């Protein structure tokens, strides 16, 4: 078995609508910090200069949203109500959803906009595979090439409502994408609404989660490195953040040799 990293980095040097703040405390600063904290909280005196090179440990402090980098959206992200009443948070989701057979759908020809049922069915027919209950379906839109740039948030394709329901009808409970969102870009959805007056074009993939419990993985990467469209497993356990609507994940494909 070998592994393929499907995760994008949390990188403060890249462009984000909600900027990442990454503060790094050096090992020398960490030694002084530890000494001060021991004095403050435990009344212990310790001279950090006795440590080798006066250093202890580095420390990273980050300010970011739970939707930065590759992450899993929980049902509570989609709204305040769900099919069973209160929607579950990320720390309440069943772990066995997140280690499952995977299938990747190449929809890189979709451009910017929506991906409908016809396009999903066409790709499934091309690869000769029908998702089974609890399979993890990954959408390779090609959007990852824009990661770290403003275009990443405006130029991609997302599922429409019927396409989302189509996959959920098959028993899929985790749908992933290499794009910023499983829905189409904000601008595309809002223009479609303004032109038609149809509110169903607004965040249909996310809002499907108010009716049917499921999770999304957003901001995946390197889906083009998967050697085959199926026959691999995906591990994407979300970080256990109590009461949160999402949790970061180091998504990995497990490919048997």
From TrEMBL:
<dbReference type="InterPro" id="IPR037175">
    <property type="entry name" value="KFase_sf"/>
</dbReference>
<dbReference type="GO" id="GO:0004061">
    <property type="term" value="F:arylformamidase activity"/>
</dbReference>
<dbReference type="GO" id="GO:0019441">
    <property type="term" value="P:L-tryptophan catabolic process to kynurenine"/>
</dbReference>
<dbReference type="Pfam" id="PF04199">
    <property type="entry name" value="Cyclase"/>
</dbReference>
<dbReference type="InterPro" id="IPR007325">
    <property type="entry name" value="KFase/CYL"/>
</dbReference>
<protein>
    <submittedName>
        <fullName>Cyclase family protein</fullName>
    </submittedName>
</protein>
């Amino acid at each position: 078995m070998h592994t393929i990293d499907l995760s994008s980095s949390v990188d403060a040097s890249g462009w984000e609508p909600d900027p990442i703040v990454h503060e790094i405390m050096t090992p020398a600063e960490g030694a002084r910090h530890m000494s001060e904290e021991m004095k403050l909280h435990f009344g212990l005196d310790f001279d950090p200069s006795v440590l080798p090179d006066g250093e202890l440990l580095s420390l990273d402090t980050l300010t970011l949203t739970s939707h930065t980098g590759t992450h899993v959206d929980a049902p509570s992200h989609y709204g305040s109500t769900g099919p069973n009443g209160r929607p579950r948070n990320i720390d309440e989701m069943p772990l066995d959803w997140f280690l499952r057979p995977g299938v990747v759908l190449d929809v890189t020809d979709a451009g910017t906009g929506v991906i409908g049922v016809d396009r999903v069915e066409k790709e499934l027919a091309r690869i000769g595979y029908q998702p089974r209950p609890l399979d993890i379906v990954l959408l390779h839109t090609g959007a990852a090439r824009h990661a770290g740039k403003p275009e990443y948030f405006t130029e991609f394709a997302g599922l429409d409502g019927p396409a989302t329901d189509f996959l959920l009808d098959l028993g899929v409970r985790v749908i992933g994408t290499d794009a910023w969102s499983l829905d189409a870009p904000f601008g595309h959805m809002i223009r479609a609404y303004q032109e038609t007056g149809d509110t169903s074009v607004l965040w249909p993939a996310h809002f499907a989660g108010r009716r049917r419990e499921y999770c999304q993985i957003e901001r995946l990467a390197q889906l083009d490195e998967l050697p085959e469209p199926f026959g691999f497993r995906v591990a994407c356990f979300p970080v256990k953040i109590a009461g949160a609507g999402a949790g970061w994940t180091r998504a990995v494909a497990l490919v048997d040799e």
